[in-house]
Amino acid sequence: MRWDGEVCIVSGDNRAWGSSNNPKTVIELWCRSREGHSVVLLVNGLSPYLEISESQTIGNQEPTKSLEVVSQMSEVTEPPILVGEKLSQDGKVRNHYRVMIKDTRFVRNLRKRLIEIGWKVTSADILFVHRLLLDLDLGPHIATDGEVLWAGPRAPSHLASKFEGKRVEAAERIRDIGGSGLYPCDMVVSCDIGELSRADPFPTPFVTLSFDLETSVRHNTILCAAVVVARGEERTEHEFRGPEKEILEGMTRLVRDEDPDFITGYNIDNFDLPRVLERAEENAGRSKFEQAALCGWGRVPAVESEQKRLRPSRRLNRVWDLTGRIPMDAWWQVRQTLRPERESLRFVANLLWPESEDKQKLDIDASKMDEEWRARPDEVMEYCVRDTHLPLDILAHLQSVERKEALAAVAKTTVETAATGTTSQWIDSLVIRLADKEEIAVPMTQSGPRRRDQIAGGYVHEVEPGLKPWVAVLDFKSMYPSIMISQNICSTTLVRDESKEESHNVSPEGTARYVSFDERKGLVPRLLSKLMEQRDYHKTELKKARESGDEEAVFLHDQLQYAVKILMNSFYGVFASSFYRFTHPDLGASITEWARHNIRTIIENVEKGGHNVVYSDTDSICVQAQVETDSPINKPPDDSLVYSDWLAAKEETLRTGNRLAEKFTKEGAELEFETALSAFFSHGAKKRYVGRVVWPREEMLIRGYEVRRTDSFRLLTSTMTEMFELILSNEEWSAVEMSKAVIDDVRGRRIEASDLVISRSCKGSLRRDGRVDFHKVYKNPDSLPYVRAAKQRIEAGLGFTPGMKVGWIVTNAKTSPMTVEAWMVDELGVEPPEYDPEFYAKRLATALGRITEAFHWNAKELLEGTRQQSIFDF
DNA sequence: CAGGTATCCTAC
DNA sequence: TAAGGTAGGATACCTG
Questions:
Q1: Where are the domains of chain A?
Q2: What is the rounded distance in angstroms from the CA atom of residue A290 to the CA atom of residue A312?
Q3: Looking at the C1' of nucleotide C1, which residue has the nearest alpha carbon?
Q4: Overall CATH class of domain A448-520+584-704
Q5: How distant is C1' of C15 from CA of A430, in Å?
Q6: Where are the alpha helices (DSSP H) in A285-344?
Q7: Nearest residue, CA→C1' of B12
Q8: Which nucleotide is nearest to A588 (CA to C1')?
Q9: CA-to-C1' distance for A529 and B7, Å?
Q10: Structural fold of domain A207-398
Q11: Whole-angstrom distance, CA of residue A812 vs CA of residue A791
């Protein structure tokens, strides 16, 4: 029986099968169909391989090394096949041979042996699933037509009915083509590589499961758990209580029944997942079979041979690996996209849904969970269920899943690689498939020449302290990608010998030269131009869809254009890194060389043209417009006499911006007029400035200052913001007075402690017993206020997971190190700590004084101004 | 108390 | 033993 349809690949893996005479490798693709069914595709027909070439010989003469020796190696299935000439990493062209391998597990060994006997080895470190997508030029969305080997109750009914009561036969047929048995999915479909093809991206109806554990503070045991499954708009709740073993069994059964693609929760990476594993081991003893029943969440049959893939496991470092599914911690998503001041679930819920009381109501004291559980288990359970819904709400709000899917579509990877992979994996996916097409050998990671010292980065212009009226801000559109395109920068176009052709693109400081675009187009420039076109396409389609009111298309194209942007911006970083497979030390260095050259040349020319360049950073430039000297910077009312003066100044600034953009834009370096400011202010430090934007919208622009920083405290942020408003309105005196008043308030303890919470992220190394070791990551952990605060949280039973932000109040700065108290009010509802007024007064004065110093009011004076008042206090 | 070191966070 | 980059500001702690 056959099934055809479109699916999105969640993740993939491979298994060896067949016989020693006829070894085969099947690729397992865990997918979700367009209609919502979970499908395991078992793909046969592709064999693992790598490529070899001679280290020395050039050209297409017969190899001096023996291909016969390679043929005889036990891991190799047939004599190497000549694939033709390919461009090697060192810039030379050589014959390359494909070596077919019995099993992916032998690759590492074979690689080593081939290198030992003098071969150059390429295309030898690519995961087999990636190989499938590369060779067939597939993305995550594919169409397939295959043989149905199993259809469960949730499969289309005409299929499901055929398999009723035939589990054993189905499992056997699956094993016959290389699968491991009855996968816990709606359907298992077998196909050949010829039966897969690309499909246009569509919004996949993924299923997400969220879970939360309530654990004993004293014994680390699980008291109860909740699971919420989101299938489309529908959510189902599940509660688990009773003996710990039954809780674990129940959850595992549910995961396998519901068969989600994503697993989420708040802090699951560092808390819930490790805890599930640890408790499963504790309850199951040594029996691996028992362990699988307690934590076998992987999307593979619950059989002995699958022990490894059944359990969640921590991949080399941070990310979790759960076969066939994607663990996605809502905490990490929040952190990356929202950057909240504090990261507790309570704080984030409050931030996102300030109106919704039920999401933040606090009625359980998590630090006394044992007592709470004993006294009122029903309320604890309710609290647990509510906290299980929140991660789903958060992911939906941040559109995390949709964004990963769009990135996967653009980078042509599985959704898993988009969600948990590294930027170099995304770039690999595009670059390798083009390299294969263009006869360019694919070197292994870490195989090229490596650089030890840093490359020079962007240029940052000095900034004078003070207020500058009427400034036009311009910047280069996608500066680094544009440079890479226009200079044809790529490891395949880098000139490695002494030849100096007229046509070469030579970097300004002479570090590198690249062959011209006409001679050979680099892989990277071509990919980047395509991505630029693709982004323009999605933007056009987005506009069209908006006009026609097609909301689904609006959503899709918006996600896709954003994903293209993310991907394009990742190129420079990867190619400037010291270890990427297609990089060379000169690549990154020459990109920034051109960047510095371009911006400096423009600064010079703008200044020659009589304009004052106020500031510049890497790809942006702030230029003063030449307006009438007494032009107002504050927008007067429409009917005011000076309104026309303000308007004239604004228009002159727009003219300046547009004129400069036109004048300095050249092929491959497009200078865009970004914003017009009626005033620009900096106290004289690079990367710290503010501006009042008057075009294209009206708003205040703040960069770098404490206002932008998540480790500032609320009072400082709000005071400084207010100060900037005044400064940008030419009311410096008021700014100073206002600051003094605030400093005075803090000294008089008239400020609420919640406005004084300082918070910073704190690292740590998680030990097997669940405790955190700070010495591994910090030289002198106890000298750091956030480590001291983290320790207090742990002490209080509130939990701390490495990497999270920790909030604290300084209660006495006279001690050394200063005394701090962790902020636990959000979570425990306790009384806030009593703060040290002098400390906060001083910190405010320092930060604000740095700014007022531009008007000759320093920190000391801000503090002194208040002293007179405190004399009266006595 | 000046200066150096460790650390975090941001701009681009 | 895993991996996008550099430039830059600021704070707390420690040392001599």
A1: 2-198, 207-398, 448-520+584-704, 708-873
A2: 15
A3: A316
A4: alpha beta
A5: 53
A6: 288-295, 307-310, 330-338
A7: A618
A8: C5
A9: 40
A10: Nucleotidyltransferase; domain 5 (3.30.420)
A11: 18
**A704 CB-to-strand B distance under 7 Å:** yes
Based on C-alpha coordinates, what's the Rg of chain A?
Answer: 31
Whether A871 shows a pLDDT value over 50: the answer reads no
A484 touches strand C (CB under 7 A): no
C1' nearest to CA of A616: which nucleotide? B12
A582 touches strand C (CB under 7 A): no
Q: Does domain A708-873 bear CATH number 2.30.130.40? A: no
Q: Give A629's DSSP letter.
A: T
The string over A819-835, giving b where at least 16 C-beta atoms fall within 10 Å of a residue's C-beta and e elsewhere, is bbbbbbbbbbeeeebeb
Tell how strand A207-215 and strand A262-265 pair up: parallel
Q: Whole-angstrom distance between the N-terminal and C-terminal Cα of chain A?
A: 92
Q: Is the CB of A579 under 7 A from strand C?
A: yes
A424 touches strand C (CB under 7 A): yes
Cα–Cα distance, A263 to A360 (Å, whole number): 23
- Per-residue pLDDT tens over the stretch A670-725: 999 999 999 999 999 999 999 999 999 999 999 999 999 999 999 999 999 999 99
A741: Cα within 13 Å, side-chain hemisphere: 10
Evaluate if residue A867 carries a pLDDT over 50.
no
b/e code A77-106 from CB counts within 10 Å (16+ = b)? beebeebeebbbbeeebbbbbbbbbbbbeb
Q: Distances in Å between the alpha carbon of A479 and those of A184, A493, A528, A536, A816?
A: 48, 20, 12, 16, 47
Residues 618-647 of A with CB under 7 A from strand C: 618
Average pLDDT estimate for A843-862: 94
Measured torsion, CA atoms of residues A393, A394, A397, A400, in degrees rounded to the nearest 10: -120
DSSP, collapsed to helix, strand or coil, labels residue A264 as strand
* A203-259: pLDDT as tens digits: 999 999 999 999 998 888 999 999 999 999 999 999 999 999 999 999 999 999 999
In one-letter notation, the amino acid at residue A566 is I
Task: For residue A454, say whether its CB is under 7 Å from any atom of strand C.
Answer: yes
- CA–C1' distance A10–C3 (Å)? 24
Look at the block and give the residue holding tokens 């805890």. Answer: A275
How far is the C-alpha of A356 from the C-alpha of A393, rounded, in Å? 12
Helix (H, G, I), strand (E, B) or coil at A736: helix
The integer distance in angstroms from the CA atom of A634 to the C1' atom of C10 is 32
Q: Which nucleotides of C are covered by protein (CB under 7 A)?
A: 1-14
